[in-house]
């Protein structure tokens, strides 16, 4: 069994607890594209890091992920939170989205496309091309795509991991995305909780680093890549 399977299929509640320690990004997304009354897609929705605030104002929200286990957690949360039936969850591959052409205003993808676009994947460039094509296909004229990915955990400044740098570079050059970065530090109640939860996700060696630095606030940065489409004919590739 792979480590990713263990995280995203079998320990979804622990994962959800970990990401709850990071800041809410509603204002960050809203600044790039106000999402009230829009038809929104959350790619790699997971347990709802972005979906849980998007659902409050969106006209509709489709939450897609390859892990049914993650989506089950999200379904419980959304059922509790949302009094209006404006959302749905779908198990899906990002390279073949079960969504009609030109039907959505906003696509967000948080810490998700990287699993197919990492240079550790031999077919990463083709994967990225397919994902970009699908995102563009489902967006209406005037639509927006916002991609969030890691810029390093445990570093003092934004850092591009070697296996993700080529992907980020193509977003900026080949696909014409603008980009920025922000701190998304994990804030735990104490060092013991920080060690427990970061060891689970990042591995035992990172947990030892957290302990050695006596971190209850674990530094992390995220990159944000975004693109607005003003014309139906403007393409991502």
Strand order of the largest sheet: 3-2-1-4-5-9-6
**Helix/sheet category:** alpha/beta
Strand content: 15-25%
Stretches with pLDDT under 50, minimum 5 residues: 231-237
The radius of gyration over CA amounts to 17 Å
Shape: globular
Spatial separation of the terminal alpha carbons: 36 Å
Write up this protein.
The protein has 237 residues and is α/β, with parallel strands linked by helices. The chain is 39% helix and 24% strand. The protein has helices at residues 3-10, 12-19, 26-32, 51-57, 68-81, 114-117, 124-138, 165-173, 191-202, 204-212; strands at 39-43, 60-65, 87-91, 104-110, 139-153, 178-183, 186-187, 217-218, 220-228. The strands form 2 sheets. It has a 7-stranded mixed sheet with strand order 3-2-1-4-5-9-6, sandwiched between helices. A two-stranded antiparallel ribbon has the order 7-8.
Keywords:
single chain, disordered C terminus, alpha/beta, seven-stranded mixed β-sheet, 237 residues, two-stranded antiparallel ribbon, 24% strand, 10 helices
How is the topology of this model organized?
Elements: H1 3-10, H2 12-19, H3 26-32, E1 39-43, H4 51-57, E2 60-65, H5 68-81, E3 87-91, E4 104-110, H6 114-117, H7 124-138, E5 139-153, H8 165-173, E6 178-183, E7 186-187, H9 191-202, H10 204-212, E8 217-218, E9 220-228
Parallel strand pairs: 1-2, 1-4, 2-3, 4-5
Antiparallel strand pairs: 5-9, 6-9, 7-8
Helix pairs in contact: 2-9, 9-10
